[in-house]
Every structure is written in structure tokens, then in C-alpha cells.
Amino acid sequence: MTRVLITGFAPFGGERVNPSWQAASLVAAEPPAGLTVTAAELPCVFGKALDALRDAVRAENPDLVLCLGQAGGRPGVTVERVGINVDDARIPDNAGGQPIDEPVVPDGPAAYFSTLPVKACVAAMREAGVPAAVSNTAGTFVCNHVAYGLGHLIATEFPHIRGGFAHVPWAPEQVPDGTAPALPPATVAHGLRALLATAARTPAEQDLKVTEGATH
């Protein structure tokens, strides 16, 4: 059995729910065949989110880690290719922190690439009927903070783990007027199960050689 840790965030920015945690909980409750999945909720707070992630990794000793965050306005699940070493918060986190142009890890490398097969993961979700794409920016808020922080944990403390980050769209309850894209958390969870099953059997170096690039 492949051991998986999946994380989502607590609600932030005045929202009552966070679809990343909703989807993570659903996947943990009904994992893909051959995988054991544990879910952990991370605080939407710079620094504390990485402390909670490290604690969860130590407690679960997973083979794979998939961290999730909310990306309101995106129409599908976006698998992040890279996390960058900068915090630049447009809004305060849940503790009122708002770092500007500060490193996630002082003296850390500029970026960490996902160690999941991002293109194969996207293809698997699309095959499952869930809209998905590769993303080349995780932003500069707490999501990127965790995406980079996970890469640093893998590089420095847990080299046996593979992991990455994905953003999920708003849940329909967050867009009651239908003026922005949204996906039910159950639909997102269905796609994430396909993602995890693919990631478990596909090393990053065997990722699909297909174009998922962007011009801007």
C-alpha cells in the first residue's frame, strides 16, 4: 500500500469554507485502490502552515504528499509545476501577517520543482472527466509558501518522499450567483483520486512528454 498525505487549508479571506480541505477530506474518506490516505488541515498562516505540514509528515511517514489550496477564478484543478522562494502577500493571512518580498526559506534555492509527474496527473484527471491543467505559478501567498516549503522538506529532511501542490477552484457555495467558475468538492475529489493513483505508479522522470506550456 502506498501511504499518502493530502493536505488542505482552513478557510481564509472571510470565506466560510475552503474547497481544498473539503476535497482532501473526501479523498481520505474514500481513497483510491492500493493507497492509504490521511488528510491534514493546514492553517492559512505563514510559518505555521509549514510547521503543521512538517508535523503531519513526521507523524504519517508518507510515500507521497499532495498539498492543496484554493485558487478562486481558475476553472479546473491546476497541478503546480514549481514553488518559488518568496512570500509577497497581497492580503493578510489568518493571523494578520502580510510578508512582502521575504524568502520562504532564507538562503534556500530560488525554486523547487514538483517531484510528481505533473503532466501525467493532469491527463489522468481529464480522463476522469475533471477539468485540469498544469500551472506554472502557485502565486506568492500561503499556497506557494507551502508548495516551496514542501519541496524544501523533501530536499533536506525527507528525501524518500515525492510530493507536489495542486490548486482547486471555488466550490459552488462560494459563488452562489454563478459569476465565476466553480466545481463541487466531490468532483474535485474524483479527479484527485485519479491524480494520486497515477502519481503512485509514475516517477516524475517518466512524466508524459506532451505540451502543457503557456505563452504568458
UniProtKB/TrEMBL annotation:
It catalyses: Release of an N-terminal pyroglutamyl group from a polypeptide, the second amino acid generally not being Pro. Its main location: cytoplasm. PANTHER family: PROTEASE FAMILY C15 PYROGLUTAMYL-PEPTIDASE I-RELATED (PTHR23402), PYROGLUTAMYL-PEPTIDASE I (PTHR23402:SF1). Homotetramer. Belongs to the peptidase C15 family. NCBIfam families: PRK13197.1 (NF009676), pyro_pdase (TIGR00504). This is Pyrrolidone-carboxylate peptidase. It comes from Streptomyces tendae. The gene is pcp.
